[in-house]
Amino acid sequence: MSASMSGNTASSSSSKKSLKAFSDDIWKNKTAKINAELFTLTYGSIVSQLCTDYERDFAKVNKQLYSMGYNIGVRLIEDFLARTALPRCDSLAKTSEVISKCAFKIFLNVTPQIGNWSSNKDSFSIFLDENPLSEFVELPMDAARELWYSNILCGVLKGALEMVQMDCDVYFASDVLKGDQTTELRVKLNKILKDEIPAGED
Amino acid sequence: MALYSFWIFDRHCNCIFDREWTLKTNPSSGTTNSKLNEDTAKLLYGMVFSLRSISQKLGSKGSFNEIRTIATGKYRAHILCTASGLWFILLSDLGQEDLSQVLRYLYSEIYVKTVVYNWLSPVDFADSPNERRGQGFRKIRNRQFLLAVEKFLGPMVN
């Protein structure tokens, strides 16, 4: 499928089926696959090393994971856009759909549910029924209170959304690792950033 | 087929890469990241910026309308604008109808692989707030990137 064609498919007014088929195609045909366990274990070793380095100060570990994620996100967005050729989203609803059906599918091969919209439609939740990052993980007692094991995801989303001019707060609201019913990632849009214009033009 | 020049602008309105070929017969002629092209870059940016706002205003509301080419009496500019605010611009002779595939390749196979995947290279070329809004001066200098651009675009120069 040519890039310009795929661009059209994706932008043809967000029919759910087409975005899904579009993402499935990219996942199947344009994405190199790696062993999921290797990925899970690599992430596990990063988290455990951070816990050691910060002497089990989990607030600091959360923060560090978040900032690592941010740095990944600002680069990953270019990879994502290069693969999908998607234009900017015109609404947060569209953004949420692209995140769940397209981004999570391409990078992690999961399609989380979107829900829990706030009444003014400026925040939503991503429900991760499957989380490849925490596949084999059980949190020890001391970590269960404070550590957000997959906090890197928040940073990635924050960084990536910022690069498409959406200033968002992203945080975990609950995690099955902590004994909650669901793993819920909350995304709250603060504002749409303005595109810059050259100095002296305003 | 003839290519005249290739430009990349970032979301801070800065020109982060320029390549101009001067001799059709020699793909290694011309300048790369030249100071002399600063003003041309600003004018080119302004032209695309204005036409881009017009094209978006004229498009029906809600749908996306990104500018692709601009033709004048002498040359054609081919433009790829990404959602992250990067602009890839190729200037060619009028014979070239559509170089969008070439621009896509430059973005996804060259820029992404040699700049974005290269963790020691910045992805944001404005280091401080006063290098934003078109006042930056940093350029892409990754060797891999420069080589890949020459190798890919060189054969299309004449």
Describe what you observe in this structure:
- The complex is a heterodimer of chains A (202) and B (158).
- With 202 residues, chain A is an alpha+beta fold.
- Chain A folds into two domains: 1-30, no CATH class; 35-193, 2-Layer Sandwich (Muramoyl-pentapeptide Carboxypeptidase, domain 2), CATH 3.30.1380.
- Chain A has seven helices and four strands, in the order αααααββααββ.
- Chain A has helices spanning 3-11, 16-30, 36-53, 58-84, 92-108, 141-146, 152-163, and strands at 113-115, 123-127, 166-174, 184-192.
- Chain A has a four-stranded antiparallel sheet, with helices on one face.
- In chain A, strand 1 (113-115) and strand 2 (123-127) form a beta hairpin.
- The longest helix of chain A has 27 residues, at 58-84.
- Chain A is globular.
- Mean pLDDT of chain A is 85; it is low at 1-15.
- Chain B has 158 residues and is an alpha+beta fold.
- Chain B has a single domain (3-156), classed as Beta-Lactamase (2-Layer Sandwich).
- Chain B is built from three helices and six strands; from the N terminus they run E-E-E-H-E-E-E-H-H.
- Chain B has helices spanning 38-58, 100-116, 143-153; strands at 3-9, 15-20, 31-32, 69-71, 76-81, 87-92.
- A six-stranded antiparallel sheet of chain B has the order 3-2-1-6-5-4.
- In chain B, helix 2 (100-116) packs antiparallel against helix 3.
- Chain B is globular.
- Chains A and B meet through helix 1 and helix 4 of A and helix 1 and helix 2 of B.
Layout of SSEs?
The complex is a heterodimer of chains A (202) and B (158).
Chain A: H1 3-11, H2 16-30, H3 36-53, H4 58-84, H5 92-108, E1 113-115, E2 123-127, H6 141-146, H7 152-163, E3 166-174, E4 184-192
Antiparallel strand pairs in A: 1-2, 2-4, 3-4
Helix pairs in contact in A: 2-5, 4-7
Chain B: E1 3-9, E2 15-20, E3 31-32, H1 38-58, E4 69-71, E5 76-81, E6 87-92, H2 100-116, H3 143-153
Antiparallel strand pairs in B: 1-2, 1-6, 2-3, 4-5, 5-6
Helix pairs in contact in B: 2-3
